[in-house]
Specification:
alpha/beta; Rossmann fold; 2 domains; 7-stranded parallel β-sheet; globular; binds nicotinamide-adenine-dinucleotide
């Protein structure tokens, strides 16, 4: 019998939903590169219901308990007397979503003597100290591709919201105004702008494809260059450095994982290489950016706008300056946890658990760490080390 600790975000303030806005949940047949959607033997939830909050339990209870396992579900993960720390000493598997991450630090690894696997229900396993996972021979897996396209949609929405000054204009209407000049004095067309993505993996490439019909000039940098045919098809300009990309881009979007090479890659120094008045959209990870450098760049006008849904740590303190800085279009971390995406990653977690308990191999594309090494997507997209430093600050958030 294994003990599984599942850390999920809280239910809606009004309670778990009893009805939904839509009746069906259209899903793609396959992901763009041909990868299949998750293939568990069965699921015990109705696609379209809220699965990512505590009462949704990722639809896992029936499966786990009928196989004799113990499931603990909690949102309590930070600060003194949190449930996660209490349950860790005999936990075999810890599962959490990047939206409400269970920060698996070296201190927690030291407590979790029976830990064998950490599953990210979503994409992005930087909330786990990957160095400690390698040293403790703990497998880290995530549900690759489950929400990459969902995030790309959020990126395009955020770029348009910033460039066209949508949110302040919407606010004038709800305030009872008709202040056209106030709205348009910061409003531009995206057409003909230069848009650059830092990383052109699953999300970054999707962003490039979605933006192509806007008649923009597309740029990218990545440690893996795209095939020549793709560069030609999308008329892409490749940059080997961040400086070269940001010098020409009117809009910069960050789509790489957080790992020691990318932590704080956007800082006071690198922001100097941006065009004055550039827009920065970051749905990848908050810690790719230096928090205070972003605020200063918006205040000075070096950046014309900043948008995204990722913060560090999560949840961010109630007085985190990104909540109130000028010209921002921030949301809580939501882009990858639409009801559509939840159905995919809940099924993906079930697939990973079935493989684990039945001693079948977990898909290589789901692996981040295995057998003490970066593996699968982890070997392709991450570097060794730890990016969880400072995560204890999540305890500052008060509900
Ligand atoms: P992916 O593995 O397909 O792509 C990552 C790309 O980043 C790869 O092409 C890799 O070569 C590149 N890369 C890594 N280090 C780099 C560096 N130092 N410089 C330049 N490029 C580098 O992953 P993906 O599905 O595209 O997701 C990317 C990241 O987006 C995730 O790791 C996660 O942090 C974030 N994400 C956020 C959400 C959300 O809800 N906001 C959801 C999914 C993923």
């Amino acid at each position: 019998m294994a003990k599984i600790v599942l850390v999920l975000y809280d239910d809606p303030m009004d309670g778990y939903p009893t009805s939904y806005a839509r009746d069906d949940l259209p899903q793609p047949e396959r992901y763009p590169d041909g990868q299949t959607l998750p293939t568990p033997k069965a699921i015990d939830f109705k696609p379209g219901v809220l699965l990512g909050s505590v009462s949704g339990e990722l639809g896992l209870r029936q499966y786990l308990e009928s196989n004799g396992h113990q499931l603990i579900v909690t949102s309590s993960k930070d600060g003194a007397s949190n449930v996660l720390d209490k349950e860790l000493p005999d936990a075999e598997i810890v599962i959490s979503q990047p939206f409400w991450p269970a920060y698996m630090t070296a201190e927690r690894f030291a407590k979790a003597e029976k830990l064998k696997m950490i599953v990210t229900a979503g994409i992005g396993s930087d909330h786990t100290d990957l160095q400690a996972a390698m040293e403790h021979n703990v497998t880290v897996a995530e549900v690759t591709y489950c929400n990459s396209n969902a995030v790309a949609e959020h990126v395009v929405m955020s770029i348009l919201a910033l460039v066209r000054n949508f949110i302040p204009s919407h606010n004038w209407i709800t305030k009872g105004g008709w202040n056209i000049a106030d709205c348009v004095s910061r409003s531009y067309d995206l057409e003909a702008m230069n848009v650059g993505t830092v990383a052109a993996g699953r999300i970054g490439l999707r962003v490039l494809r979605l933006l192509k019909p806007f008649d923009v000039k597309l740029h990218y940098m990545d440690r893996h260059r795209l095939p020549e045919a793709v560069e030609k098809e999308l008329d892409l300009t490749y940059h080997s450095t961040l400086e070269s990309l940001t010098k020409v881009s009117d809009v910069v979007t960050l789509n790489c994982p957080l790992h020691p090479e990318t932590e704080h890659m956007i800082n006071e120094k690198t922001l100097k290489n941006f065009k004055r008045g550039a827009y920065l959209v970051n749905t990848a990870r908050g810690k790719l950016c230096d928090r205070d450098a972003i605020v200063s760049a918006l205040e000075s006008g070096q950046l014309a706008g900043y948008a995204g849904d990722v913060w560090f740590p999560q949840p961010p303190a109630n007085d985190h300056p990104w909540r109130t800085m000028p010209y921002h279009a921030m949301t809580p971390h939501i882009s990858g946890t639409s009801l559509s995406a939840q159905a995919r990653y809940a099924a993906g977690v079930r697939e990973i658990l079935e493989c684990y308990f039945e001693n079948r191999p977990i898909r290589n594309e789901y692996l981040i760490v295995q057998n003490g090494q970066l593996a699968g997507v982890g070997a392709h997209s991450y570097s060794k080390g730890n990016a969880t430093g400072g995560s204890e600050e999540a305890a500052k958030f008060k509900k």
